[in-house]
Design goal:
Layout lengths: L18 E4 L15 H7 L10 E4 L25 E4 L2 E7 L10 E11 L5 E4 L7 E4 L8 H7 L7 E6 L22 E12 L11 H20 L3 H13 L3 H4 L4 H24 L3 H14 L4 H13 L3 H14 L4 H29 L11 H27 L1
Antiparallel strand pairs: 1-2, 3-4, 4-8, 5-6, 5-7, 5-9, 8-9
């Protein structure tokens, strides 16, 4: 059993070494063993709820998510890979290869996707913007997602693909005039990423699970993500964290209070923080900021979220915003050396920028001219006096020469 230690938030070194540490408040009542999981720990320690049970990966590196957001919004991406005919009305082109097994009937798939009408290239749906995974239970999908589901059967976890779906397996002859707005007989293009899937008996979806089942499933994903992170498999770790978060969407969290809310947050918040840690290591700083901001929207005094958002902002050159995060984090954790170190780095950066600007302006405008001293009355008097002395001296010499 691995010992869980209480350490400062920036305890991991620049070499990318990671540790599992306690999120810890000022008073701890015992940490959950890594192999047991949050749910079992809460059942044994119902009096001690909250962040004391948080188990989280902390990393300090260079500086929704899996694979990054899909490509730009100028229409479907251009893909030159081989076209695979899955079914008469469904074709697929792989954008990024996945790994592992493929889902089967009743698998609960977690995915991100964008959807366009093929003829007009009008984008009518984009789950990446919502920062929340979509759930599809194969064999129980909505009628308009039949073509998408057929494509999912052929995909592996982590795979991203472009699907072309005929209107017969999409929104049909009538289309949809509500949300999303799809015209009649519209063929559809999907850019879809299968983040992962769960094999569940008879396709038990999240909505059919009890609170305990959902938190337990999320916690298993979180622990799997931590193990993958230790192996430096960051992409796969992020898949697990995303799927854990998917079990605890907003609709679910709004229904919780008291003990169950604390249990859910003890799993959900570390997943957001660990996603941010992965994204910083991968230099995907904007996405890391988004993950930290999700936590700070609910808990504005979360030191780790402030620290990691500050780190990401600093790497993007957003020094004022980064300093604001670090200063607030230092007020909450004044003894933390990692925060002080980042503030010193920002101060040194400011000095370098100032010197560069100083040299730049000096080169543009040249050396500053010395001001001329104005002539005063005293200086004019001295000049006249010297002239008179010179004149009398000259006359005296002339008379002396004549006398001789």
């Amino acid at each position: 059993m691995e010992e869980v230690q209480q350490q400062p938030i920036g305890s991991a070194g620049q070499d990318g070494e990671t540790e599992i540490i306690s999120g810890g408040s000022s008073v701890t009542h015992g940490e959950p063993p890594q192999n047991d999981g949050i749910l079992e720990y809460f059942y044994r320690n119902t009096l001690y709820l909250g962040q004391d049970a948080e188990e989280e990966i902390v990393t300090e590196g260079s500086s929704f998510v899996h694979g990054g957001p899909a490509q730009d919004d100028n229409g479907p991406p251009k893909v030159d890979t081989k076209v695979e005919v899955i079914q008469e009305k469904v074709t697929k082109q792989v954008i990024k290869e996945g790994h592992g097994e493929k889902p089967s009937k009743y698998s609960t798939c977690f995915l991100h996707y964008k959807a366009w009408t093929e003829r007009t290239q009008h984008k009518f749906e984009d789950t990446w913007q919502e920062l929340q995974l979509t759930e599809v239970v194969l064999g129980k999908e909505k009628k308009q997602m039949t073509g998408l589901a057929i494509g999912l059967y052929t995909m592996k976890a982590g795979e991203r693909a472009l699907l072309h779906v005929g209107w017969e397996l999409g929104y049909g002859e009538e289309g949809s005039f509500s949300f999303p707005n799809v015209p009649p007989k519209a063929d559809i293009i999907y850019e879809v990423e299968l983040v992962g899937f769960d094999e569940t008996k008879e396709g038990k979806a999240r909505g059919d699970m009890t609170v305990e089942e959902r938190i337990s499933a999320a916690d298993r994903r979180r622990m799997d993500g931590n193990n993958l992170f230790k192996e430096d498999k960051l992409e796969e770790a992020m898949q697990q964290y995303e799927m854990a978060i998917a079990y605890m969407g907003d609709d679910f969290m709004f229904q919780l209070f008291g003990k169950y809310q604390d249990m859910a947050l003890a799993v959900k918040n570390p997943c957001h923080l660990n996603l941010a840690a992965c994204l910083i290591k991968l230099k995907r700083y904007e996405e890391a900021i988004a993950q930290c901001s999700i936590i700070l929207a609910e808990d504005q005094n979360n030191v780790k979220a402030l620290f990691r958002r500050g780190k990401a902002r600093s790497e993007l050159g957003q020094t004022d915003a980064a300093r604001e995060d670090f200063m607030k984090a230092r007020k909450l954790a004044p003894e933390d050396k990692a925060i002080s170190k980042e503030l010193r780095v920002l101060a040194e950066h400011d000095k370098i920028v100032y010197q560069k600007q100083k040299e730049l302006y000096k080169g543009l405008f040249g050396p500053r001219p010395e001001p001329k001293k104005p002539k005063t009355i005293t200086s004019w008097f001295i000049v006249v006096w010297q002239w008179l002395i010179s004149l009398f001296t000259s006359l005296f010499r002339r008379e002396r020469i004549k006398s001789e």
